[in-house]
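re the bet — no i am not wrong, look at it urself. input seq straight from the record:
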Amino acid sequence: MKKRLVTLILAGVMVCSLTACGGDKPSAGVDSAENTTTAASATSAETKSEETANVAGEDKSDASSVMVYYGWGNSEDEEKYTTEIYCPEGAQFSENTLEIYEEDGSVMTVQVDDEINEYSATSKMHWHRDAYNNEPTGYPIIAQLYFDGEVDAETAAENSGCSQTVTPLGFKWNGYDVVLIETKYTFKDYGEQIELFVGVEYDLDYWKVEEGTGEVKNLTTKALFGFDMYSYGWDELTQDKCAWIAGELFGVDSGVANPFAVSDEETIAPVADVEASALYGTWLERDSDWDNTFIFNTDGTGVLISGPEYPFKYTVSGDVLTLNYDDGDMEELTVSVSGDLLTMVDMFGNELLLDKQAEEGAETGETADIPTELISTWTNEDGTETYAFNGDGSGYQNYEGAEYPYTYKVLEDRIYLSYDNGSEDDFSFYVDGDKLVIMNSWVYIRQ
C-alpha cells in the first residue's frame, strides 16, 4: 500500500532446457502398422535452430518426429511394430529421446514435455499376461485390470480399491480405436493413485520356448500401446486434453480443438464495475499488524488509519479505485466487493482483504450484520455444549458446565468469536428453522 512499507521478494525461476520440436504433421493417419515405415532423421539442437528460419510450407517433419519400436521381445519382424511418433505443438522431445534416436535410428521409449501447458507424455507398452508366461511379477495393474478384469492376490495385497474406466475417444490410429484408460488404486499408506493412459489395443506376435521340449512357439496375444499422461501443474488433464495430445503424438486428427489454446477474448478479463456506494463504510484489513482501516464517506472523502491517519478523496471508475491523499500522494488500486468483503490489489500485485465493520443500531444496540434468526441460545443434542448469541454482538459458550464469554461478528456464512480470555475461533454456519448447523455437521437446537 502507498502508506505502508511493502517488501517485495523476487523468486528465482529454474527453467529446464529441452530440445524444441514441432512442425508440420500429415493431415491423415500414418502408414499402416503392417507396413514398414521409413525412419525420419531427428536432427541436433544446432540444426533445428537453423531450420526455424526455413520458408513457410517447407517440410520440417524431420525436426518433429521420431521412430519408436513397440514390440520388443516379439518375433524377428521388428518393422511391423515400428511407427513414427510426432511431437505435439508447443511441446519438446526429451533430450534423452533424441540422443538415443540419433544414435540408433529408433527408440524404445518416447517422452515429450510441455513446460507451458505443464504436461508430459511417455510411450508405454502393456502386454497380456500370456506374454509374461503367466508370471504375476512385473505385470502392472493397468494390464491386469484391462485384460483380466481384476488384480491377482499378490497385487491386491499391496494395493486396495483398484478400479479402471475405459473411454473410447472417437478416433482411430492405424485402424485401431484410441481409448482413454483411467486406473485408480491405493498403494498401502500413500493414498489414491491415478494413472492416465491413452492408446490402442493391438495383436502382438511373440515367441516362447516350451519347457521340457525346448520347442520354440510363435504365438499371438493382446497388447496395449500408447502414452502415460501426467500433469505436473495445477490443472488436471481432461479427456479433451488427453485426446488432443494423443492425436498430435499419433499424427492423426482427434477431432478435438487444441484445448490449451486461449483466444484473445479469453485472455482479457471483463472489467467488473464497482459502484462507489458499495465502498461506503468502515473496512478493516485482515491479518494487519496495525489494524489498517479504510473509511469511505458518502461525499467522496475518506481516511486511511494505519497508526497515523491519512485523509483522502476517492473516485471509482470501473474496477479502479483512485485515492488522492491530502498530502499530495496518489494511489490506484484494483478493487472488487463481494458482500462484506473488499478486495484491493495494489500496483505491485499485492492483494489485501478487508472486512466491513458493523454499524451500531441507534436504538436496539444490535449490529447490522447479525442475522436475526441467529440471535438465540443454542444447545447441542446431548446437552454438553451451548452457544448464546445476543443481538448486541456479545454471547457465551458453555461447555460441560464451564462458561466462556465472548464477543462475535458475522461475515457472510462465518461467525468470528473473540473470547474474553484472549483466544479466538471461527466457523461456518447456517440456520435451518430451529436448528443451527455448524461446520455442515454439528447440530444445535434453539432453546
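see?? The mean pLDDT is 78. told u. also The longest helix spans residues 239-250. so pay up
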